[in-house]
């Protein structure tokens, strides 16, 4: 067998190996693949003979991956996933393909989604698959092409394109404001403050930005801005929210500004593209389209 052939096992053998590795059972793998247990065992034996390495440790009751098998299983799982994605792309979209995009929950819902119909209308041959991710992740492992990320433009091995800078400001419901004496930023320190779990020091920074000492004491904490906005509209307290995410509530009068100057966040929203996806046509099309919809820098 040539070296090239030895390094490229058959897809049936790889599928059998991945199933056994994932399920931990030849019987379960055979049921999933609609094969006999003997056929699955033969496929695994072909791989082990081809590589000259044991991929599984077997005893009378159990089967488990060997050390070499664990390493190989991770690579095979990723490779089969890429093949499945490529096949899906060919079947669902013959021309331009698929864009697998990670988005932030609130920013994706409130800022990006209202724009997406325009992209779909102008790029009918591109299908976008959306997943929610907060924080950094491995693009290759997650099989994602790009991400909308909040942070700094320092994602390793990736290009970060600025989309929107963020200004945060305190807001309250009109009823909350009408029922309390709130005239200066200092007055907010006496009121219930709503906190974001992802921005634990935001209120401290904002009070310092006003030249004030931050109040101490606990307050309600939320994981997503959308939930915090709803709590604020319900009159539960003062929320420090990105203006770009609550423009609708401000326009409708559901939220109103509280006293104090807005503060620009150190971080911003970026489109992040790993270097190996720069030339992927759906990524390039999405990036060019998106940059046409971002507000101009002031």
TrEMBL record:
Domain HTH lysR-type: 9-66
GO molecular function: DNA-binding transcription factor activity; sequence-specific DNA binding
InterPro entries given in the database record: LysR-type_TF_proteobact-type (IPR058163), LysR_HTH_N (IPR000847), LysR_subst-bd (IPR005119), WH-like_DNA-bd_sf (IPR036388), WH_DNA-bd_sf (IPR036390)
Any single Pfam family the record assigns to this protein: LysR_substrate
Keywords in alphabetical order: DNA-binding, Transcription, Transcription regulation
Family: Belongs to the LysR transcriptional regulatory family.
Protein name in UniProt: Transcriptional regulator
